[in-house]
From TrEMBL:
<dbReference type="InterPro" id="IPR036388">
    <property type="entry name" value="WH-like_DNA-bd_sf"/>
</dbReference>
<dbReference type="InterPro" id="IPR036866">
    <property type="entry name" value="RibonucZ/Hydroxyglut_hydro"/>
</dbReference>
<dbReference type="InterPro" id="IPR001279">
    <property type="entry name" value="Metallo-B-lactamas"/>
</dbReference>
<keyword id="KW-0378">Hydrolase</keyword>
<dbReference type="InterPro" id="IPR041516">
    <property type="entry name" value="LACTB2_WH"/>
</dbReference>
<feature type="region of interest" description="Disordered">
    <location>
        <begin position="75"/>
        <end position="108"/>
    </location>
</feature>
<dbReference type="GO" id="GO:0016787">
    <property type="term" value="F:hydrolase activity"/>
</dbReference>
<dbReference type="Pfam" id="PF17778">
    <property type="entry name" value="WHD_BLACT"/>
</dbReference>
<dbReference type="InterPro" id="IPR050662">
    <property type="entry name" value="Sec-metab_biosynth-thioest"/>
</dbReference>
<dbReference type="Pfam" id="PF00753">
    <property type="entry name" value="Lactamase_B"/>
</dbReference>
<protein>
    <submittedName>
        <fullName>Glyoxylase-like metal-dependent hydrolase (Beta-lactamase superfamily II)</fullName>
    </submittedName>
</protein>
<feature type="domain" description="Metallo-beta-lactamase">
    <location>
        <begin position="31"/>
        <end position="202"/>
    </location>
</feature>
Amino acid sequence: MAEHPTGIPILLEPLVTRVLAPNPSPFTFTGTQSYVVGDSDVAVIDPGPDDPSHLAVLERVIAGRPVRAILITHHHRDHSPASRPLSRSTGAPIVGSAPRVRGGEDGRADAAFDRDYVPDRVLAEGDVVRGHGWSLRAIATPGHTSQHLAFALPETGALFSGDHVMGWSTSIVSPPDGDMTEYMASLEKLMGRDDRVYYPGHGEAVDNPQRLVRGMLGHRKQREGQILRLLKEGAALPVEAMVARMYVGLNPKLVPAAERSTLAHLYDLRTRGLIREEGATWTIA
């Protein structure tokens, strides 16, 4: 934590300053990272929770410079709520991820979302926000959420990866909005790029992003293999029983997240015709 303090701006490279929000948790690690990008004018990526102390630090970094846009990778409550007061104070538009399109009745899945998020402009693949000497290009990376975006900074080879690729853990994929099929495809998409560094929503900068993404793909495929082996043993199993056997020693606070990601794997395997659902249990097709 000494190298990554809350509320103290860290200049990562000439065009990028990071500010850590004071919201650490088992789901956010040390907290949500906001980024101020630019020089004579700037953009703010993922301003984080609506916390007055965090907003004060962001405004101190902005230092009266024109803010061309407030960019949102996805509208979870730890990423987007501060966009509204920051937009009011700077006059900048809120752009980026679309509002939620896949919903459900599951309170655990719904609770993470910023329900008041309404962007001024939705960005699609390839859309660009520009300032003096910098540009941010939207890269569609659905999976963690259905409308998740990353933002590439071609001037330096950096990619702001949001929660699609984090510097401390694999991402939670929680149906119905999260989708494992899309998540895996988005990882494969990033494998086809040559970004120099990732600046994630949580965790340290990723200096060898190709190696990390390759490892994340391997991790998900291993988890998929675990599920199939369990079900091939013959018993129909509920999600809770699978998680108990696959995630031995897991922090109890993270068990619900593990159950959501396991469910996302099950939906993906069902779509591929490898397993089937039988009431509250799953079995080999």
